[in-house]
Design goal:
Elements: H1 8-32, H2 38-41
Length: 42
Amino acid sequence: MHISSGRWVYGLCLALLTAFLWGILPIKLKQVLLVMDPVTVT
């Protein structure tokens, strides 16, 4: 049986950070691809 550690705020902050970073990734990639080719980026 799972026992809660009580660190739900920490987990929520990490989940929000992850969602923010995945959300900003396409915007930043669009800017980067203006000056670099896709093969170099990957």
